Amino acid sequence: MTADAPYDPTSDGELQQEFVEQWRNAAYGCFSSGHKFCREVCPVMQVTRNENHTPTAFHANVVAMEQGAYGIADVAEDYVHCTQCGACELRCPNTLFTGDFYRNRTQTVKLVKAMRALAVDSGVEQPHWKRWIEATVDRRNEPVLEVPVEQERVRDWAEGLDLATGGETVLFVDCEAAFFRTSVARSTAQVLNAAGVEFGLMREQWCCGGPASEMGYTAHARNFAEHNVADWRAIGARRIITLDPHDYITFTEDYPTYFGAAYDFEILHITELVADLVRDGKLTFTQPIERVVTYHDPCRLNKRKGIHESPREILRAIPGLTFKDVDHVTQWSYCSGAGAGLAIEKPEITAEISRRRVTQAADLGVDALVSACVWSERPLSEQGAKLEQPLDVIDLMELVAQAAGVDGRGVTAVRSGGAVAGVRGGEASRGAPEALA
Amino acid sequence: MTAPPIAQSDPFLDELRSILGPDGVRADKPARWNRTRVPAPFPVHRWADYAPDVVVLPRTAQEIAGVVRLANRHGIPVVPRAGATGLNDGAVPLRRGIIVDVKRMNQIREIDLVDRTVTVGPGINMLKLNEELRKHGVMFPDDPASYPCSLVGGRIGTSGWSLIGGRYGHTRDLVISFEIVLPTGEIIRVGDGGGRKIRKSSTGYQLKHLFMGHQGTLGIVTEATLELVPRPEVEFAAFFHYPSFQAAYESTGALTKSGLATLAGVVLFDEWKLRYLRRDDEAYIPQAENVRAVVATAMYGTRDEVKPAARRLVRTARESGGTYLGDEVSQGDWAARHDRYATPLHGRLRTTGQVVPMSWHCEDAAINYSALPQVMEEWHAIADRIIDRYGIFDDWGMFFYTNAAHKPWGDYLVEIDIGIWEQKLDDVNWAGWVEAKHDIAAVALKYGGSITACHGATREGDAELAAEEMGGGFEVMKAIKRVLDPNNIMNPGKYELDTAYDPNAPSPFSGRRTGGN
Amino acid sequence: MLGFLLSRQRPPEARRINDDVIMRFDHVYEVAPGKMDLFPQQDIPAWDTLRIVASRWDHLAWMHDHWADSVLGVEELESEADDPDLDGIQASGVPSG
Ligand SMILES: Cc1cc2nc3c(=O)[nH]c(=O)nc-3n(C[C@H](O)[C@H](O)[C@H](O)COP(=O)(O)OP(=O)(O)OC[C@H]3O[C@@H](n4cnc5c(N)ncnc54)[C@H](O)[C@@H]3O)c2cc1C
Ligand code: SF4
């Protein structure tokens, strides 16, 4: 068949061979299944309906590469189509029904990251990611758009709150919260204060490195990690509180692989902590919130970590609130589309995923969608604002702050809204790298 | 008959783009290679032989009609592909050509709660559809074990079997009418007679059945009007165990002949299946030694119907020697059957007991009740032979499912599950596999059964016997094929239907096994 | 402990259930690792095993709910003690993880 001349491995041949060797068994684990239980839960597939973007294809490509059919340059762009939400690998019977038994589960997210890394290492880069990562390296923080990002301003969000530096417990404030939706960071800090949790900030917080690792820039990811862990050690931190699920993933999945057994920090996610504070009576909700809301399970909490109960527990504890829940299993197939750089490289797909998510919420007859992932909130807010009956998108900590009677409003008020008024941001799409300059 | 391969720069691609738009045509290798196989056994070592030339992603019936007309002009094969979950290789191109991937056609076009129908595109999945329908208190109860991943177009393409078909019927009973693009590009609607929402008619020939299960050889379905049933108030699942297959077999007979209308399905597990389940299934690992065979039953309906019927069912099971396995096992296992899959790591090497990843072959013959024990013995013997000879196969036991809609007593979908270690496939052991597959199908015919209850018989090893099963009917099939598809462009090679055009046409598989094409 | 600590991610010591099956976490069966020489096991942290097991049960509950408003069990039928139809049914409720 002339159209299928054998693939000619060029300089990336050796890297690719190593990669195939490493992933061969995993690839056959899926290839020999091929049943596609993962397809309809995949948020990207729900939009593109293109089989190239399925976990099935992501695995089968390894087998095709093993056969010399094609190479990384042919498939790199397909692997952009993934938010690393984890729905597919959880829903895969090889995880859900037998992953625990065999201590071997489908690891599509890991495969996508590895394939992206192979692409970068082979010189096959995606233009927008490349510039995003370059800017992140340059500024030590992600170049979240529309706001100036500089290392000197990484604590600006905390202006006037008089927060300590260092100590046993550190609050790690994600780039999007530190620079863009600062109300999330302020709300979180003040809620912790109100509950009497002692904590400090890092001396010099850098990007967690998660996005770089998700996009395949492993060496950069590691540099960020080295810096942050060194900072934690220097200030005597033992416990890190994350307010963003992506950071929670990075600190519990990436960092342990970098640092091994020496990595002895307790990583605590804010929803787990706050639910516990409420349970123990250390945080009380004094202000009724007369609103009708539903909850968006952030993929990285729900699908990837199994954290879905604590946010619901918190919402149910807020007086006045009418909470119309959609169960967390149904939400395995929901997503905001914000993860793993999709919004940077394919903003139109992110926008469509978000549009569907806010429409699902609006169909419930709620007036706000509560999320617990700051990265989801920008695309969701954009689409919520476009609905005929605009829908607010609120961060759970913004809501908690209000219920606890503290003022969590952000310092960049235009963009970060009031605690509950939520963000009705404009077209803050991330797609245009020109805006990075 | 095979057209020359399409090169990436071929003007033919431009013609396709003019029909579908640039984002509707993909000719890159990953797009084509990833639309080559389905989960049916596949000679992975010969993947390249099967890759299509180009993939199209249509959105409308008109686009599909345009593609089909173009294909006729150029004599290029067309293969429809829906969910690509087929356990028969219907969606695998045997002569390259164009894959028409219908996944983008997944809209719900109408929900009619008055006349109780829903009209959809062929690319929609049943679970996703039912999530929407639930808001209205109704559902479309086509429930294969691929419920979360197969699509309506493929359900029609295969004439599928549903786990709860005893109560609600199977795909052919649940699809009221559909629109199809014929092999020459005309768009027609077929049903029982002409009414889009009419379930029973005596006008004309029964064309719905002709275009049901044709494996893409007679056209491409572009819209379907489906049955809506009330969402069940109650589900009842009860599993019973027995000290021997014979005891379970007899009990199965008693249960299926009970006449209980809410009985949705009965599944008999043989002793091989029980040994296999004890490998890794948490419900079966702790079971006592005397649990050698199992019968699963399920009922759906209103509480008023199901409760007394469930009592009666339990009594029948007990009186025929069954012991209840408990609510936890019954309910847990039943809930897992809507997306049941034999995962690769069930695979074991007979020599060392080591775990290796095996692909799943699921045989699906239809066999009468009276012949089940003999078929079971003969099939296991065939499996045993290839396990010993090639060392890459494994016997995962057998299920016997009630087969007919509303009449669960007479025939069974008989499934033997065989693991195949694909990483080790080569021409020699693949030929051994095909021979075994052929022998398995021959046993089904020997006992007056059918090669396939739901997957289709186009697989290598089956296809050679389809003509024998159909008898004189195969001549009618060929005549129909010739008339509807004069240029043999729809899924050519399948069912050996090339012989409709040339009595001496070679088997599409014969060249491959010996290494040429 | 609410949070993640790497040192707590090692699964408990294995107990043997039979020749082919072991158990580390209560009610969670695992293959005897000796069977996984050709297809190696992964280093799965404790949290992940527990997540998979919990998700499985959540998924099965979801499936029941997807198909019908409620699930009727033999135990419920049996609890209506005066029902002569049900005399002598043994519900051997099996403890499976
Ligand atoms: C885990 C698992 C469990 C399964 N359990 C069952 C079961 O219980 N019952 C059962 O019946 N099957 C079962 N199957 C097999 C498979 O799911 C069915 O055969 C299903 O009907 C195939 O649908 P699909 O959408 O995947 O079709 P595909 O595999 O894409 O196609 C199937 C056939 O239909 C043709 N086709 C596809 N779309 C169209 C169209 N629009 N118009 C005309 N022809 C078309 C194709 O050419 C092909 O010949 C199972 C499969 C798996 C993987
Ligand atoms: S990722 Fe899992 S569910 Fe998807 S096709 Fe592969 S094995 Fe099947």
Describe the structure.
The complex is a heterotrimer of chains A (437), B (517) and C (97). Chain A is α/β, with parallel strands linked by helices and 437 residues long. Chain A folds into three domains: 15-124, no CATH class; 128-274, Up-down Bundle (Glutathione S-transferase Yfyf (Class Pi), Chain A, domain 2); 281-436, Rossmann fold, CATH 3.40.50.11810. In chain A, strand 8 (368-371), helix 20 (374-386) and strand 9 (392-395) form a beta-alpha-beta unit. The N and C termini of chain A lie far apart (48 Å). Chain A has helices spanning 13-31, 43-48, 55-66, 72-75, 87-91, 93-96, 99-102, 108-121, 127-139, 175-180, 182-194, 210-215, 218-234, 245-259, 270-279, 299-305, 309-317, 342-345, 347-362, 374-386, 396-404, 413-416, and strands at 164-165, 169-172, 200-201, 239-242, 266-269, 292-296, 322-323, 368-371, 392-395. Chain A has a four-stranded parallel β-sheet, with helices on both faces. Chain A is globular and about 65 Å long. The radius of gyration of chain B is 23 Å and the shape is globular. Chain B is of the alpha+beta class and 517 residues long. Chain B folds into three domains: 11-101, Uridine Diphospho-n-acetylenolpyruvylglucosamine Reductase, domain 2 (2-Layer Sandwich); 108-230, Uridine Diphospho-n-acetylenolpyruvylglucosamine Reductase, domain 3 (2-Layer Sandwich), CATH 3.30.465; 234-446, 3-Layer(aba) Sandwich (Vanillyl-alcohol Oxidase, Chain A, domain 3), CATH 3.40.462. Chain B has helices at 11-20, 29-33, 47-50, 61-74, 126-133, 152-158, 165-168, 171-174, 207-210, 245-256, 271-280, 303-319, 327-335, 372-390, 427-446, 463-470, 473-484, 510-513, and strands at 25-26, 54-56, 78-81, 98-101, 108-112, 117-120, 138-139, 175-181, 187-191, 220-227, 229-230, 234-242, 263-269, 293-301, 323-324, 359-362, 365-368, 393-402, 411-420. In chain B, the strands form four sheets. In chain B, strands 12, 13, 14, 15, 16, 17, 18 and 19 form an eight-stranded antiparallel β-sheet that branches. A five-stranded antiparallel β-sheet of chain B has the order 5-6-10-8-9. Chain B has a four-stranded mixed β-sheet with strand order 1-2-4-3. Chain B has 18 helices and 19 strands. Helix content of chain B is 33%, strand content 20%. Chain C is α+β, with helices and mostly antiparallel strands. Chain C has one domain. Chain C contains two helices and four strands. Chain C has a three-stranded antiparallel β-sheet with strand order 1-2-3, with no helix packed on it. In chain C, a hairpin with a 4-residue loop joins strand 1 and strand 2 (21-23). Chain C is extended and about 50 Å long. Residues 85-97 of chain C have low confidence and may be disordered. The chains are: A alpha/beta (437), B alpha+beta (517), C alpha+beta (97). Chains in contact: A-B, A-C, B-C. Chain A binds chain C through residues 25, 90-91, 95-97, 99-105, 107, 239, 251-252, 256, 261, 263-269, 272-273, 276, 305-306, 327-330, and chain C through 1-7, 9, 28-31, 33, 36, 39-42, 44, 47-56, 58-59, 61-62.
